[in-house]
């Protein structure tokens, strides 16, 4: 089922938080709405579900305009952050509840609940109540309940936020597996870039009610449209150096540090204000330019080590390297910088 938002507008108490947003979710894909708190992603999801009414524009499910339909008349499955399971019901009863509301026959309920239990790997737990289940098991029950009605679209609102790190990793792959196996169109709302990049076919990154970029995860990471997108993706985050082109294919930061521009941008005019973005994986391993400085921060991460390098002019560059113990705080080092992988933005923050 293709989902289309046309000039979607939403206001609260006269304040417009989303103004004429346009978005298409393709049939069978998982799209992630990614962004900081308050950017409008959950509002968009709740409007698609019918929980919130639109103030303008249209929401189309296929060719059907559902803008003014209540949520119970839209065939959607929703999984919330807090699972919203009924504590007095067993897992079986929780999953069966949407079918009972529809007055589905007992035999069909039995068949479909067990089908969903197999799909979500919770068959041994159907007789247990939510209080007897782990967080991951409760999340699987909530997912099975959302899918048992065979919805046109699956809506996931921060579904992994309440799980510990190990369970989040497990459930990321499980939710993606289930979405691919069922072929259902899915929309994932998250502020976690790792969730979005590992689970979604495409990401729509939002800020202040506007979509900044829509792209496949790898495209968005390597070719962000602006500094907001570049800064939101990546951990440790990208470093931005404000400065200007100085002719002869070179860049000078505001504090006076100089380096070559990427070869694709050597023709930039002298004195053009620009921002150079350097990701940590592109500094400290290989490159045609070297930077000297003092190690001012070290964070061992097991298989890798994160460093901050303060250069002579006071700028700080970040580096991710394979785990190493030969560097200590205060060490003077000279590391390579892959300037051709650097991202360059104009004074308005748009990528050049």
Keywords:
OB fold (Dihydrolipoamide Acetyltransferase, E2P), 352 residues, five-stranded antiparallel sheet, alpha+beta, 8 helices, 19 strands, six-stranded mixed sheet, 34% strand, Rossmann fold, 2 domains
Could you describe the 3D structure shown?
By secondary structure, the protein is of the alpha+beta class. It has 2 domains: 3-225, P-loop containing nucleotide triphosphate hydrolases (Rossmann fold, 3-Layer(aba) Sandwich); 239-346, Nucleic acid-binding proteins (OB fold (Dihydrolipoamide Acetyltransferase, E2P), Beta Barrel). It is 24% helix and 34% strand. It has helices at 41-49, 91-101, 106-120, 135-147, 165-182, 193-199, 217-222, 227-232, and strands spanning 3-12, 15-25, 30-34, 56-61, 64-65, 76-79, 153-157, 185-190, 202-207, 210-215, 239-245, 250-253, 258-260, 273-278, 289-300, 304-311, 316-322, 332-337, 343-346. The longest helix is centred in the middle third of the chain and has 18 residues, at 165-182. The model has no long low-confidence stretch (mean pLDDT 94).
CATH class of the largest domain: Alpha Beta
Kindly report the name of the CATH homologous superfamily of the largest domain.
Answer: P-loop containing nucleotide triphosphate hydrolases
By DSSP (H or I, 4+ residues per run), the number of helices equals 8
Q: Going across the biggest sheet, name each strand in turn.
A: 6-7-8-3-9-10
Q: How much β-strand is present in the residues? A: 25-35%
Helix content: 10-25%
| Total number of distinct structural domains | 2
CATH architecture of the largest domain: 3-Layer(aba) Sandwich
Q: Indicate the structural class.
A: alpha+beta
Average pLDDT value?
94
| CATH fold name of the largest domain | Rossmann fold
């Amino acid at each position: 089922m293709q989902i289309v938002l046309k000039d979607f507008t939403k206001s609260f108490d006269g304040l417009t938080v989303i103004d004429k947003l346009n978005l298409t979710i393709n049939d069978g894909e998982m799209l992630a709405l990614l962004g900081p708190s308050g950017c409008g992603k959950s509002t968009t999801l709740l409007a698609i579900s019918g929980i919130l009414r639109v103030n303008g524009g249209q929401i189309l499910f296929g060719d059907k305009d559902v803008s003014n339909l209540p949520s119970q008349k839209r065939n959607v499955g929703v999984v919330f952050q807090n699972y919203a399971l009924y504590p007095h019901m067993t897992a079986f009863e929780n999953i069966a509840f949407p079918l009972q509301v529809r007055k589905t026959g007992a035999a069909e309920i039995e068949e479909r609940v067990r089908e969903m239990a197999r799909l979500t790997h919770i068959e041994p737990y159907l007789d247990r109540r939510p209080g007897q289940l782990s967080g991951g098991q409760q999340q699987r029950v909530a997912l099975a309940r959302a899918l048992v009605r065979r919805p046109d679209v699956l809506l996931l609102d921060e579904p992994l936020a309440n799980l510990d790190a190990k369970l989040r990793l497990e459930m990321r792959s499980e939710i993606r597996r289930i979405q691919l196996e069922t072929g259902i169109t899915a929309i994932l709302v998250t502020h976690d870039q790792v969730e979005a990049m590992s689970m979604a076919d495409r990401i729509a990154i939002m800020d202040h009610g506007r979509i900044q970029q829509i792209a496949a995860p790898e495209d968005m990471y390597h070719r962000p449209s602006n500094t907001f997108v570049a800064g939101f993706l990546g951990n440790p985050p990208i470093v931005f150096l404000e400065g200007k082109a100085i002719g002869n294919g070179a860049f000078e930061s505001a504090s006076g540090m100089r380096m070559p521009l990427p070869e694709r941008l050597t023709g930039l005019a002298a004195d053009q204000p620009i921002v150079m973005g350097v990701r940590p994986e592109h500094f400290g391993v290989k490159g045609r330019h070297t930077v000297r400085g003092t190690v001012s921060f070290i964070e061992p991460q097991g298989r890798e080590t994160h460093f901050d390098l303060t250069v002579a002019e006071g700028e700080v560059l970040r580096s991710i390297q394979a785990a190493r113990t030969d560097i200590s705080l205060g060490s003077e080092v000279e590391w390579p910088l892959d300037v051709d992988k650097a991202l360059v933005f104009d004074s308005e923050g748009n990528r050049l």
